[in-house]
């Protein structure tokens, strides 16, 4: 049986529909590259190899994400998964997994959860988190999330680096990987993540 890796992508969320429309009208796009699917998530299957099955669900309206909608859609996927699974969340996908696993019992065994540049709160966050706000503690997540890895870069210009420190306080058993030059991890390759997944899957 192949080892399954579920990757939850990032997104944005807005407090009102008007703010969402304002973003759509005023956001500057100057290259077709913006519309192309590329980067480490798209080649993760290739890097992990044939022993793995990488599943990348397209979460509802990632440009104006709503937690309830993401939860409903995610729960459509869960019954179809193998008894053991690995979870990866990038940015908004990371806080989604942290919130979901802190508030719900996950029916499968989680070998590991990998949060990449995940926001923790909006105190120093440029954008709002609306209904993606985390609960007061993440104990349930730590108990059922398997081996937890946290990745953040000091030069992240989207999610401030201090969000990593907040996760570390709530998740003392987690392994933190700190980088200095990865920004928001919108990169072509992510060898450290690949190796960590391989390590816990063996």
TrEMBL record:
Gene3D superfamilies: alpha/beta hydrolase (3.40.50.1820). Pfam families: Ser_hydrolase. SUPFAM superfamilies: alpha/beta-Hydrolases. InterPro entries: AB_hydrolase_fold, RBBP9/YdeN. One of its GO terms (molecular function) is hydrolase activity. This is AB hydrolase-1 domain-containing protein. It comes from Candidatus Zambryskibacteria bacterium RIFCSPHIGHO2_02_38_10.5.
């Amino acid at each position: 049986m192949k080892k399954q890796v579920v990757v939850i992508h990032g997104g944005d969320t807005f407090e009102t529909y008007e703010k969402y429309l304002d973003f759509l009208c005023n956001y500057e796009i100057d290259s077709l590259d913006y519309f192309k699917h590329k980067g480490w998530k798209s080649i993760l299957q290739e890097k992990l190899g044939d022993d793995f099955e990488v599943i990348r669900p397209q979460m509802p309206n990632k440009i104006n994400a709503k937690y309830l909608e993401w939860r409903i859609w995610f729960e459509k996927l869960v019954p179809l998964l193998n008894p053991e699974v690995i979870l990866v969340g990038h940015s908004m996908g990371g806080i989604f997994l942290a919130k979901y696993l802190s508030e719900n019992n996950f029916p499968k065994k989680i070998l590991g959860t990998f949060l990449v540049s995940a926001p923790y709160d909006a105190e120093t966050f440029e954008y709002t988190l609306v209904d993606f706000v985390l609960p007061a503690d993440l104990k349930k997540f730590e108990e059922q999330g398997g081996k937890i890895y946290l990745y953040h870069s000091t030069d992240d210009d989207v999610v401030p680096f201090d969000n990593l420190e907040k996760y570390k306080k709530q998740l003392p058993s987690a392994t933190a990987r700190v980088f200095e030059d990865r920004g928001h991890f919108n990169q072509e390759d992510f060898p450290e993540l690949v190796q960590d997944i391989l390590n816990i899957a063996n």
